[in-house]
Amino acid sequence: MINPLLFRAHTTNLAALEVGKHFYWQIGGLEIHGQVLLVSWIVIGVLLIASAIATSNIQRIPAKFQNFMEYVLEFIQGIAKDQIGEKHYREWMPFIGSLFLFIFVSNWLGALVPWKLIHLPEGELAAPTSDINTTVALALLVSVAYFYAGLSNKGLGYFSRYVVASPFLLPIWVLEDFTRPLSLSFRLFGNILADELVVGVFVLLVPLFVPLIVMALGLFTSAVQALIFATLAAVYIGEAIEGHGEEEHEH
After folding, report:
1. Which parts of the chain span the membrane according to its record (predicted)?
2. 211 in Cβ contact with 202 (< 8 Å)
């Protein structure tokens, strides 16, 4: 019987995938998932290097990499502007852009880089977004941003939205505000982990062409997951600012 928390394809290192087994760093009384931090730092490094290259020699008529990075910036601007609105989107672009780029690069590095060739004492390197701790942390950031957006624009009057429709449903409205970002985290975690498991199984069973097709589909899914997370985060922030949630509760 296969333990669902530990799946290992023993016939090939490239097909091995360990779930629930981590490489820990002991810092005081805390145990930190070392492999998640390592790959997260690599993702951040990739983003910093890409930003430095794109801005090192800015031209009036962009070419090549600068043109690509400007397209990415316009794409993120479109997400923020469409969901948050013309008035407030600029102040939230760095947050929405950071979410999208971190998740996108994490997912793609997890799919494209053969991390399993790097051996750790325990666990293995993989996309940070395949770890529930990372996705829940991102969801908590969205929750904090959501409440900050509402409070900074409406003050304490923001909380009146919870009792406008019915004071008796107050716990449900509060729970809804926390569960919506958390549902994003579980969707992202589940999809990225499932993609890695499927690729691992196909590499084990059909180690030639089929895994490449599945990997290409996984890259597309990874990009879509980053887009969904960033877009819905912007939607939630836009609702907090404009008060769409109140309208929904009234109906």
Report:
1. 32-54, 92-112, 132-151, 158-175, 197-220
2. yes
Block mean pLDDT (10 aa), the chain, length 251: 40 50 74 82 92 81 79 90 87 92 90 72 78 87 87 75 66 74 79 71 65 73 88 89 53 42
Query: CA separation (Å) from 155 to 147, 150, 240?
Result: 10, 7, 11
What b/e string do you get for 191-209 counting C-beta neighbours within 10 Å, with b at 16 or more? bbbebbebbbbbbbeeeee
Residues in the chain: 251
* pLDDT tens by residue, 154-183: 777 777 666 666 666 667 777 777 777 778
Query: Taking the C-alpha atoms of 77, 244, 102 and 123 in order, what is their torsion angle to the nearest 10 degrees?
Result: -170
Which tokens hold the place of 22?
Answer: 């981590």
- 200, 16 in Cβ contact below 8 A? yes
Six-digit token string for 143: 């929750």
Beta bridge partners of 33: 24
- Burial label for 36, CB within 10 Å (0-12, 13-18, 19+), is buried
The DSSP bridge partners found for residue 31 are: 26
Q: Can you tell me which residue has the tokens 């600029």?
A: 90
Residue 139's closest CA among 98, 100, 99, 182? 182
42: nearest Cα among 125, 122, 156 = 125
The residue to which tokens 């390197």 are assigned = 125
Residue pair 219/111 in contact (Cβ under 8 Å)? The answer is: yes
The Cα 196–Cα 40 span in angstroms is: 17
Q: pLDDT for 109-120, tens place per residue?
A: 887 777 666 777
CA distances from 89 to 147, 177, 194 (A): 16, 21, 33
